[in-house]
Amino acid sequence: MTERSWSGDARAREAVRAGTKVDFLPSGERRLTVLSGPSGVGKSTVVAEIRRAHPEVWLSVSVTTRRPRPGEVNGLHYFFVDGAEFDRLVEAGELLEWAEFAGNRYGTPRAAVLDKLAAGVPTLLEIDLEGARQVRRTMPDALLVFLAPPTWEELEKRLRGRGTEPEDVIARRLEAGRIEMAAEKEFDLTLVNTDVKDVCHRLIALMTDPLGVTTTTNREV
Ligand code: 5GP
Questions:
Q1: What is the C-alpha to C-alpha distance for residues 6 and 188, in angstroms, rounded to an integer?
Q2: Does residue 131 have a known ligand-binding role?
Q3: For binding ATP, which residues are annotated in this chain's numbering (predicted)?
Q4: How far apart are CA 2 and CA 68, in angstroms?
Q5: pLDDT confidence of 5, banded at 50, 70, 90?
Q6: Which domains does the chain have, with CATH numbers?
Q7: How many whole angstroms separate alpha carbon 151 and alpha carbon 59?
Q8: 143-148/32-36 β-pairing
Q9: Does the annotation place 41 within a ligand binding site?
Q10: Packing angle, helices 167-182 and 152-161, rounded to 10
């Protein structure tokens, strides 16, 4: 178990000094938490477990141009939109961040997130690396958590085992996964997804520990 210090407040001060436009600088309020990591690592399983067991946490619902997978519900898992509507949202400044991932666009509706944070509700975004980097720039007080697979081979196995994507899509996601794995050190801490319940437990503790500056990871470094 490794102790690491979280320095969101210091980063917020730096951003203000550098003149970066900052969306929200909570002081003493619940923080925004971002969960990121390579496709196939199990982010959506973690999110599903939080949705089931922790209604006190608000999960942002992203907008995407991707087609729904079987079982995905519009408004619950994503808001499914076409390219023109996505363009409109970007132009109107309605997205807190957005990124293109494996041929589709994904974005976080800004207003809902800011409302929840202002109301003091612990808020979680499950987004890709590019999105996490944007949040780091515009909301430096956010806590960025990297979800890592136990091994690269395990990640590949999970991505193929899902059986929902054709080979070329899997190849693109693995390619993106290599880039995402290399960015782990940009995050405040890493949780290794060996056990979904353990990851959720740690994540909830991080989110609900008011301004807890010291956090723990389950990655041995
Ligand atoms: P999937 O198609 O498997 O649901 O998601 C593909 C990737 O898009 C995942 O890495 C997921 O975290 C990311 N993603 C989902 N919603 C958003 C979002 O609103 N913004 C960004 N930047 N990435 C997102």
A1: 6
A2: no
A3: 37-44
A4: 39
A5: very low
A6: 10-60+121-220 (3.40.50.300)
A7: 27
A8: parallel
A9: yes
A10: 150
Task: Name the band, by pLDDT with cuts 50, 70 and 90, for residue 165.
Answer: confident
pLDDT over 80 at 158, yes or no: yes
Residue nearest to atom 20 of ligand 1 (CA): 107
Q: What is the pLDDT of residues 64-114, one digit of tens each?
A: 999 999 999 999 999 999 999 999 999 999 999 999 998 999 999 999 999
Where is average pLDDT lowest: 30-44, 102-116, 118-132, 184-198? 30-44
> With 0-12 CB in 10 A as exposed, 13-18 as middle and 19+ as buried, what is 70?
exposed
3-state SS, 113-138, equals HHHHHHCCCCEEEECCHHHHHHHHHH
Q: Is 46 helix (H, G, I), strand (E, B) or coil?
A: helix
Cβ(177) – ligand 1 distance below 6 Å: no
Residue pair 8/32 in contact (Cβ under 8 Å)? The answer is no
**Which regions of 52-205 does DSSP assign to beta strands (E)?**
58-59, 62-64, 78-80, 95-101, 104-109, 123-126, 143-148, 189-192
